[in-house]
Amino acid sequence: FDLVSSSTPLLDPALRRLIRSRIFRCSTCYLPKAPGVTPLMGDLPASRFSTVRAFRSIALDYAGFFTIRESLRRNAPRSKGYLVVIVCLSTKAVHLDFAPDLSTPAFLRALDRFVARRGLCNEIFSDNGTNLVGASRHLKEVFELLASSQDVINDHLASQAIAWNFSPPAG
Q1: What is the CATH number of domain 46-166?
Q2: Where are the domains of the chain?
Q3: How does pLDDT run across 93-104, given as a tens digit for each residue?
């Protein structure tokens, strides 16, 4: 079927219907125009949908390094610094904090500042960074030490225990 040699104009409705029906019957012409399949979403944690106060369940990660000047002088010494990014899972509010290095004590100080400002959180989601895994172990040891010494502290910490969830590495 050659449209160029045909004397019928292309605006003919019957010819238009004929061409469309041939295209829809042809699998090589029709299949590439098929809509894509939308992938199914994975199961999200229940804390993403709960309506509680902000920063009850958080996700955290490090950003950086950033070069930081120690003062406003021209030749002030520069040092590395890292940004601790804490995101509330239910409201998507963001809390930014500073850590001078990637060590566990520096992260624990940043976490203490976060808790002092925003309140205690119940769940923390993070990647498997060595400083974060070390901080999780350290907090568990502190909780166990305090829980074994006094019943009052044990009851208090049991009601405010923090669950720490690590995401598997990508790839």
Answers
A1: 3.30.420
A2: 1-31, 46-166
A3: 999 999 998 887
